[in-house]
Amino acid sequence: MTPVILWCGAAGAAVMLALWVRQLRTSDATSVDVGWSLLVVGLAITFGLTAAGDPWRRALVAGLAVVWGLRLAVYLLTDRVLAGRGEDGRYRELRERWGAQAARNFLFLHLAQVVFALLFSLPILAAMRGGPLDGWAAGGVLVWVVAVAGEAAADRQLAAFRAEPRQRGEVCQAGLWRYSRHPNYFFEWLHWWAYVLIGRAAPLTFLGPVVMLVFLYRLTGIPYTERQSLRTRGEKYRAYQRTTSAFFPWPPRRTAA
Q: Are 183 and 200 found together in one domain?
């Protein structure tokens, strides 16, 4: 598998270099997230064709990863890159912070996505290795369905909220957003547990949910999103923080803590 991974890394680096050149021209790095999703899709297809393991197991895991990744990529492309709202707040904040070093640092950020894609492809590869499908796989598919349906519902609810001009400056609390400030992140994290079950709890499969939780909670997810929301919505978002769970869906508190 080592030569395959090296070739995948080289192809991924070429894709990310092209997206980096694009952000040089547009001053908008939002497409890097689309690139990361498609890299994982490409890795899942490659591993499905070349990895060891039962063919039906490999086909199932590759299919689940491809559908998940393509849905995410299409959503990010249409809702963020092509929506005309400008650069995602996370990257805008980084661009302002980096100043004259932004071009160089964004190059490193784009190439780092190749490493992250390879890292998150390892649980997928681990789930492909093994014998015929069993009850563990059925449980994994059920988790996958709940996770992808939940993430898609959260994305639709947020998109519908943003499409209403009268909601400008307000805080989305529709549907799943009433129970979690980041239901899309929660279901994204839940999705990675599907490979833990399909892979029969092989140690490497736990890399997905563990690393994703660290990224969402401490690095690229919740911290940036919360700061941006506080800047644009102020006290309304602070009230939302006081009553609504940050991550795990939970009934909102009736009185602010």
A: yes
Take residue 91 and report the two structure tokens written for it: 């990257």
Look at the block and give the residue holding tokens 């395959």: 4
Specify whether 124 is located in the same domain as 138: no
SS (H, E, C) the chain: CHHHHHHHHHHHHHHHHHHHHHHHHHCCCCHHHHHHHHHHHHHHHHHHHHCCCCHHHHHHHHHHHHHHHHHHHHHHHHHHHCCCCCCCHHHHHHHHHHHHHHHHHHHHHHHHHHHHHHHHHHHHHHHHCCCCCCHHHHHHHHHHHHHHHHHHHHHHHHHHHHHCHHHCCCCCCCHHHHCCCCHHHHHHHHHCHHHHHHCCCCHHHHHHHHHHHHHHHHHCCHHHHHHHHHHHHCHHHHHHHHHCCCCCCCCCCCCCC
Closest CA to 46 of 90, 91, 97, 6: 6
Domain check: are 87 and 168 in the same one? no
- Please say which residue of 131, 158, 180 terminates a domain: 131
Nearest to 247 by CA among 218, 206, 227: 218
pLDDT tens by residue, 43-91: 999 999 999 889 999 999 999 999 999 999 999 999 888 877 788 888 8
Q: What is the pTM of this model?
A: 0.91
Token representation of residue 156: 């639709």
Nearest-CA neighbor of 19 among 38, 44, 1? Answer: 38
Cα torsion angle, 138, 71, 16, 46, sign:
positive
Calpha distance 32→29 (Å, rounded): 6
Whether residue 30 contacts residue 81, with contact meaning beta carbons closer than 8 Å, is answered with yes
